[in-house]
Amino acid sequence: MTTKGSSTIRLLKLTEIDELDELEQIWLGDYRELEEILQHTNDNDQAIQTELHEKCQQVQGHTHMVQALLCGMICDRTRSQQFLRYLHLIVKDGYAVCVKQLEKLARDKFPKMNDRNAAQPSQQQMQLLWVVREFVNLKVQGIDKVCIALLRQIQGGNVRSATNRWLNTNLCMLFQESKTWLYEQTQLIPMVFYTFCRLAADHADPKYDKLRRMEGQLCCDLFRDKFSECKVIGREAVRLLQQVCKIPEFEGLWEDILNNPQQFGGMTDISDLFSVRTPKDFLQSRLTPQMEEQLLFIMERVTMGQQQRYQRWFMQKWGLMEPGGDALIPDLVRYICGFHHPSNEVLRSNLVQRWAVVGWLLKCAKTPTSVANIKLAMFYDWLFYSPRNDSVMNIEPAALLITRSIPKWLDITVDLMEFMFALADLWSKPSVDRCREGIFHAAADCVQKGVIKSWAQVSTCPQINPVLRARVRAQFRGFCPGDPEEIAVEDVKVMGRCALSSSLIGPSGVWIQKLVKSWGGTDTITSK
Questions:
Q1: How far apart are the first and last CA of the chain?
Q2: Helix, strand or coil for residue 318?
Q3: 354 and 304: one domain?
Q4: Which tens digits make up the pLDDT trace of 329-341?
Q5: Contacts of 357 by beta carbon, 8 Å cutoff, 6+ apart
Q6: Residues 314, 147 contacting (CB under 8 angstroms)
Q7: No. of H helices and E strands in the chain?
Q8: Of the candidates 409, 420, 413, which has an alpha carbon nearest to the alpha carbon of residue 459?
């Protein structure tokens, strides 16, 4: 039996300057042991099986042989079927070791399984997906966790990479072809919907029609057939569906959500989804593990004033300035606001703060639509904020960016405040009062929990438009020293109409109107 020697196979594509990888070294060591068995048994299948079973009786022998066979399946494509057969014969733990090792490989090593800047996926990456497909066909318990780890490796906003498109396409195909199995995976279903609903927005170009149709069909089937699982996504599902609702594959689903919501498990209307705070792991899932690690490095290891070179490197690494690359930025902002909540010690330190990172990301946007989507990601939790159910850490970055920008970047303060109020007024008729109430509670919580001292620094700033300052005093009544007593709470609605005047609505309102119009339906508000 001829096999590739362990000196010629590689699990990872490391460069000369990379340190040796512990997992790869362990797997290659186990594979060398497997090679010895294959060689001295002289291709006798029965003898090979006997040797493997004997090895598995030794301390840690089962784990070593499982890792050896996994290594062979991934690194030696010509023998992968035979290695898989041997694996089936020796497994005695329900594939638990296999699943654990595959999850680690998919989560931590997937990018290293290919050369840097490679134009196509590597054999190792393709074989890993082949192994996962085989385990899905076997309905191996726990393989859904490996699928979730692979979903994280698909980068949003990156249609340039053939490897990224390949992984996107093949995972979508796997779930379509294995829908019976998928429908039994309650933890995987919402993650699949969330991932491909988000990615479909990147594939509006006609050249990606086939992929987008497949994503749309999968997402619509999941939402209709498995709504009870998908609804746990909560308000983020609405934000993502809003981005794709004009794509033909999603139009029918969006119309039913707006006009016939009762068919989805008794949902009253779309506000039922607004009420559900999105679990943090969904927000984390749209950053690759490597991307998350590097973003956290900026916020946890770099001091304020020293971040520029790290930010430039991050932009280049993840293609934020490439065509379509800024579509990733809302994912980053949602992660920063909703997932990464630093300790009080970090908040009091001189490390780069979240508001500064969000401000930098906002400046990376290249089109008005991108800017509007980033601001929406920043303020999304404000619209439905409940002090009882939501965390002030979700709204802290926007509040601090507004107030900290006043001394040097007043235009940012004005732009963000205009956007926030226009968002509340333009979102939808059934929710307009609720959105204004949510913004009030968010602003109040920022003061009550010490994020900022008060909103007076905005409402009393003479350089800010008087109409906007009046709206701030009215909307945040009680949290701006010098509030005019004659402005009652119900007058906020009047001030809301003022916010739509030509002196205030500006680009923010125009682009919010475009976003809202993309929803379709009859519940949109237009300025008068």
A1: 80
A2: coil
A3: yes
A4: 999 999 999 999 9
A5: 295, 298, 299, 307, 336, 397
A6: no
A7: 29, 0
A8: 413
Q: Report d(CA 53, CA 446) in Å as an integer.
A: 63
Angle at which helices 45-56 and 61-75 cross, to 10°: 130
Q: Note whether 301 and 365 are same-domain residues.
A: yes
352 and 302 within one domain: yes
* Structure tokens that stand for 32 in this block: 């060398």
**Phi, psi (5° rounding) for residue 463?**
-80, -10
What DSSP line would sit under 80-94, residue for residue?
HHHHHHHHHHH--ST
Residue with tokens 């119309």: 255
Residue ending a domain, among 313, 347, 380, is 380
- Structural domain harbouring 422: 400-484+507-517
Question: Is 294 part of any domain?
Answer: yes
CA nearest 371: which of 527, 517, 510? Answer: 510
Question: Which residues, 6 or more positions from 262, have their beta carbon under 8 angstroms from its beta carbon?
Answer: 268
pLDDT at 248: 93
- Farthest-apart Cα atoms in the chain, separation: 95
Helix axes 396-404, 329-338, angle to 10 degrees: 100
Instruction: Give the pTM.
Output: 0.91
The total of structural domains in the chain comes to 2
What tokens were used for 501? 């005047």
Burial of 240 (0-12, 13-18, 19+ CB in 10 A): buried
Residues 375 and 300 occupy one common structural domain: yes
**What are the tokens at 344?**
């009080």
Beta carbons of 249 and 214 less than 8 angstroms apart? no
CB atoms near residue 319 (< 10 Å)? 17
Angle at 499 between CA 450 and CA 379, to 5 degrees: 40
Dig out the tokens for 91 from the structure.
């497994």
- What are the start-end ranges of the H helices in 138-247? 143-151, 162-177, 179-182, 188-200, 209-225, 227-230, 235-244
* pLDDT recorded at residue 514: 60
3-state secondary structure of 525: coil
Q: Encoding tokens for residue 512?
A: 């919010």
Helix spans in 245-328 (H): 248-259, 271-274, 280-285, 289-301, 308-317
* Two structure tokens written together for 217: 């069909």
Helix axes 432-448, 396-404, angle to 10 degrees: 70
DSSP 109: I
Q: Which residue has the tokens 């990606």?
A: 208
DSSP secondary structure letters along 46-83: HHHHHHHHHHHTSTTHHHHHHHHHHHHHHH-GGGHHHH
Residues of the chain with pLDDT under 70: 1-7, 428-429, 482-528
pLDDT of residue 430: 73
User: How many other C-beta atoms are found inside a 10 Å radius of the C-beta of residue 134?
Assistant: 17
Q: Which of 78, 176, 165 is nearest to 136 (CA)?
A: 176
